[in-house]
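Model it.
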Amino acid sequence: MDAVFREICTISVEPDGMAFDPASVRSEVIRGEDEYHGMRVYFQATLGTAILPMQIDIGFSDRIEPKAVRMEFPTWLEMPQPVLRCYAPETVVAEKFEALISLGLVNSRLKDYYDLYTLSNSFDFEGEILTLALSTTFETRQTLLPDGVPDGLTPQYIQPNIVHWKAFLKRISADATLELETVVDRLKIFLLPPLNAIQAGANFRCRWEKGHDWLYPKNTAGET
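Modeled.
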């Protein structure tokens, strides 16, 4: 892995002020409590006189559904946009929701809540594709589906984490008026219908419109 990243650091691109030090590359194994693990790579970048520590986490053994998509990565300086193979939004939702379910009331990953809320307001989703991504992630990570509402979406989770949530918003310079309860309520609207469909073994032929709600086929409220 170190050799791969050293080679990446030496790739010649149009000068943009950034430089990556191949000699600084080092990696370590990410060890989890189960077989799911990966590698964490550290290296150093410079922008002028600024020294920028870099970290990339690499996961293995995941099945990805839907497949990775090619996306243009936006730039600030009107330079050519790099094209990257990225997770589909459905996969991002699935992995963050799986963590929310698995960690339950001890979940300290408030960024996942913020990201899921942002995704629900930024992308449209097809219900069948999202349930495929969720099912694949749950199966790969051997996640037991909860009976009823996941603990991480209950009042028992919200109340002890309000102070931490406000500190998180301040740290990322986000809207300080966004309440954790508002986020959780939004995630319940977004995530519980596809979760319920998976638990029932039902098709979920609905469409999520960003910033709104699930649109069900005419004359149905989901399909069983």
